[in-house]
Specification:
Blueprint lengths: L1 H17 L42 E5 L5 H13 L2 E4 L10 H13 L18 E7 L7 H8 L7 E7 L5 H11 L4 E2 L3 E3 L6 H10 L5
Parallel strand pairs: 1-2, 1-3, 3-4, 4-5, 4-6
Helix pairs in contact: 2-6
Length: about 220
């Protein structure tokens, strides 16, 4: 009986914490999970330069992303590699806790209070960009609240927005739709959401070709 109760409690914990995936996959502190792929430090140089052989043409592209454990960062960097876009990391002024459970608590508090966490830096030459990719992990069934801060900080009129996200098992479509909802003045191309194991050159290339970003 004790063993049955133990496994039942573990199952409930997995379901509860799975709703908040600080960067696509669950993190330390939850049964059966991965550790962060690429722990991030504020100011750490991580952004690849523009590829002069990129097929991006004359369109000026920005890939803006928020990442906690490294998975969304990895997807963003692959988009940049294939398009030659500029990369902008959305960093909070006050970093999120590195502990998984603490981070989920902060994320839920922000969601429940409709918070707008301050962003540490601004996009340079915003008006130069025609197309803006916006990416994030799924947190509590939707985008982290810092994505609201980002989308409310810039004028999206005349721009094309392409949403992307990383997730553990669910709420992919809801998160992509939320990014579209947050940028009503922009045109939109079909977004993409990937789990960690599906972030690779082929999958991202197929998506970028489907939406005519690359040939």
């Amino acid at each position: 009986m004790r063993k049955c109760m133990f496994y039942l409690m573990m199952a409930v914990a997995v379901i509860a914490f799975g709703a908040c995936s600080p960067d696509e996959s669950n993190e330390p502190g939850t049964p059966g999970i991965e550790t962060p792929e690429n722990p991030e430090e504020p100011g750490e140089p991580e952004e690849p330069g523009e590829d002069p052989d990129s097929p991006s043409g004359e369109t000026k592209i920005l890939v803006a992303y928020f990442s906690w454990g490294g998975t969304t960062q990895r997807m963003a960097q692959e988009i940049v590699r294939q398009t030659g876009a500029d990369l902008f990391r959305i960093e909070p002024e006050v970093p999120y806790p590195t502990d998984y459970t603490e981070c989920t608590e902060v994320a839920l508090e922000e969601k429940n209070s409709n918070a707008r966490p301050a962003i540490a830096k601004e996009v340079e030459n915003w008006d130069d960009y025609d197309t803006v990719f916006i990416g994030c992990p799924v947190w509590w069934w939707t985008t982290p609240m810092i994505i609201c801060t980002f989308t409310e900080s810039y004028d999206f009129k005349g721009k094309t927005v392409v949403p992307f996200c990383t997730y553990a098992s669910t709420y992919r479509d809801e998160t992509l739709a939320r990014i579209v909802e947050l940028t009503p003045d922009a045109e939109h191309l079909a977004g993409e959401g990937l789990t960690s194991g599906r972030i690779n050159e082929q999958n991202i290339s197929s998506w970028l070709k489907e939406i005519s970003i690359i040939k």
